[in-house]
Amino acid sequence: MTPQRLAFVDLETTGANPVHDRITEIGIVLVEDGHATRWSTLVDPGCRIPPFIQTLTGITPEVVADAPRFEALADEIQSRLAGCLFVAHNARFDYGFLKNEFKRMGRRFQADVVCTVKLSRRLFPQFHKHSLDSLIERHGLLADDRHRALADAELIWQFWQKLQAQPGLAALDEAVRQQFVRPSLPPHLDAGVLDDLPDLPGVYLFYGEDDVLLYVGKSINLRQRVLSHFQADTRAFRELRISQQIRRIEWRETVGELGALLLESWLIKSRQPVHNRALRRNSELCTWQLVEHAVGDFRPRLVCGEDLDLTQTRDCFGLFSSQREATLALKKIAEANQLCLATLGLEKTTGKGRPCFGYQLQQCKGACVGREAIGLHSARLMAALARLKLKTWPYPGVIGIVERDEVSEREDIHVVHNWCYLGTAHDEAQLAAILDTRSAPVFDRDTYKLLAKHLGGKVRVMPLAFAPKQTPGEPGVCGAD
Ligand SMILES: [Zn+2]
What we know:
4-stranded antiparallel β-sheet; 5-stranded mixed β-sheet; binds zinc ion; alpha+beta; Nucleotidyltransferase, domain 5; 4 domains
C-alpha cells in the first residue's frame, strides 16, 4: 500500500509562523524502490533571520546571501516532489511552509502527507515524547548535523527504516493508511476530481443524477471536508445517501471563512439543495416589533416576510422562522416575566377590562384590569425582550467587507447591504458588476447572524454606494471555479 516514491522533507525557517516567516533551507531525501537520493539547498528568505534561529541552525544572513530565492527553486522542488508521499516530522509545519511559499507565487502545491510524529505516537503509544531528539535517543538514530534541513530529513528516513524493521512493514503500512485515508469513493464519482480539490477555503456543491443539486457545504479546507464525507467510519445515514447519489462535484474557492459562509448560506437559500435541511427554509421570517400605541404604551406587532426591512423597521426583537414560532417564543417570555398575554395580544378576553386567564392564576400582574400601569408593563416587556433586539443596519448604504489572505495577499470584497449578501468581488470590474446587478436581496436569518457577528469584530469595511437598485434578480456571485 505504501507508495513507491517517498520524500522525506525537512525545512529550516526564520521562525514558526507560516504566514510571516520564510524558508531558509530545504532538505529532501527521496527514496524510490529503496534507493535514496539526497538534495538540499539554502534559500534566501528575503527577510531578517532572528538571532536565536541563527544560533540554533547556524544559518546566518551571510550563509544565505548568495542563495537563490524560493521563486527560483519552485519548479525544481515541485518536480522533485511530484508523485511522492510527503513524509515529515510534524508534517503540518513543513507542508504548510512549502504550500505558503507556492501560494505567494500564486501557485498551488499539494501532496499526500504523512507525519512521523503521528506515526511514532501511534506505533509507540507507551512513550510521551515524540520529538526528533526523543526518536534519536529511543531508536539509536545517527544524528549528523542537527537542525540543518538535510540532516534532519535523513533522520526521518532512518526512523522510517527502523519502523520497517520493527514493528515491521505491515504495521507501518497500517499506521500510514490511518493518516493517509483514501476513502472509498462513491460509486458514480470520477476519482480524478478528488485530486483536483484544493486544500483551501471555499464552498463545494454535490450534484446527483440529472444535475440535481444534492448538497452544499463550506470549509476552510475543501479537500479535507469533501473527503470526510466519504470516509466509511464517519458515515451517517445522510452521508450514505449522498454518497450513493453523487455524480459530480463543483467548488468555488474563497479567500477566507467569511466568504465561504456567506456563499454557502446564499447558495442553500437560493438553490434549495435536497440534503441541506437545517439551513434551507427561509420562507416566512418573522420578528416582533414594539409599536407605541399611546404615550408609554408599547405593544408587540408581528412583522413578517417582505415587510421585514431592517433599514426601515426599528425596534425589532428576535428572528423566527414562522408566525407560530414567534408566538410561542413571546408566550414563553411573557410567562417567565409575568406579563399579560391579553395586553400583548396573544389572548382574547371576554371584554375590555376583563382579566386575562393568567391574572386569575396570578401569572399576570394585572395590566389587563388596570392593576399594573401600562407604562410599567411596557417597560418590563422591553427589558424582557432586550436580549433579542435586532441591530438596525448601521451604514448609510451598501458596504464592502474586505477579507484578506495574508499569505497570497489576495482580497475578496463581500458586498453587503441591509444585512443582505449581494455577492463577492475579486476586482474592480466584478465589484461594478455586482453593484449594477440590480438585485433585490432577500433577508435571511443566517446571513444576518453571520454579519452581525463579523461586523462587530475587526473587519475592514468600505462604503460603496448609498442605496442598492431594487429590481428582482440574483445576487452577482463571482466564484473562482
Ligand atoms: Zn392580564
